[in-house]
Write a sequence for this structure.
């Protein structure tokens, strides 16, 4: 009999749909949805009321020693237990400092190589600053003529660059006599030469500025590595005694 009752088609009970006039508000809210929303709203309201009551009853003169290690960060109270570094042991801290020291040494090595490359690429035109020498070995020093040896004019013997030969100078004089440039062309050439000179001066100034910045970075990294090395040694065992204060960008000196 029960099987026959199950075989008979029954009326399908359907939930009420959202009216077409309110279709823009989404699905029609049922009682169970409203109940969940109401419970959540009441929980939030009760929490806010409890916090307001605690605020009203708080004693402004209250103090406990945990306040020394607590702080407010991004609106959240952070105590000692919230500090991720508070649970690190000495070995882990030493390992982290070793890694930091290795990174600083690597950056110092990279910057030092860049400084050496920049120094090699720059042309130090001032002979007094470079201090270079050109040594010649001759058999008869009294009768030796440098201008004749280098095949140039006596005025160009002391030049370290652009030391032209006499044959090249003669060719330039002949070309200038044959061309016989007009006054406007000469002015244009002078302007072009001045523009080139200004461009070269700006490029040289920028190159020296970049070199100075890299050298300053190397000094800063060297100082940071020195302080980190001292901190690493201070974390080791043994009795320490300070013999010199930190000065001149250098860390303090200790004696074990």
């Amino acid at each position: 009999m029960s099987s026959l009752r199950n075989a008979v088609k029954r009326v399908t009970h359907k939930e009420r749909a959202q009216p077409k006039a309110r279709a823009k508000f989404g699905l029609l809210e049922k009682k169970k949805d409203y109940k969940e929303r109401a419970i959540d709203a009441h929980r939030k309201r009760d929490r806010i009321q409890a916090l307001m009551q605690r605020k009203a009853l708080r004693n402004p003169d209250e103090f406990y020693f945990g306040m020394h290690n607590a702080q407010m960060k991004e609106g959240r109270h952070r105590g000692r237990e919230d500090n991720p570094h508070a649970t690190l042991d000495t070995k882990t801290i030493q390992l982290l400092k070793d890694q930091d020291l290795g990174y600083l040494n690597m950056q110092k090595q990279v910057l030092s190589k860049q400084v050496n490359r920049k120094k090699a690429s720059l042309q130090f035109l001032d002979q007094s600053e470079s201090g270079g020498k050109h040594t010649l070995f001759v058999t008869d020093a009294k009768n030796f003529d440098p201008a004749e040896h280098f095949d140039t004019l006596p005025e160009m013997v002391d030049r370290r660059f652009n030391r032209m030969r006499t044959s090249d100078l003669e060719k330039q004089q002949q070309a200038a006599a044959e061309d016989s440039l007009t006054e406007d062309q000469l002015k244009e050439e002078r302007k072009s030469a001045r523009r080139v000179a200004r461009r070269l001066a700006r490029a040289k100034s920028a190159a020296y500025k970049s070199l100075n910045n890299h050298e300053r970075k190397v000094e800063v990294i060297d100082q940071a590595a020195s302080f980190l090395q001292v901190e690493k040694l201070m974390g080791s065992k043994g009795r320490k005694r300070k013999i010199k204060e930190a000065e001149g960008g250098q860390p303090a000196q200790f004696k074990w």
In short: Residues 149 and 157 are 10 Å apart (CA to CA).
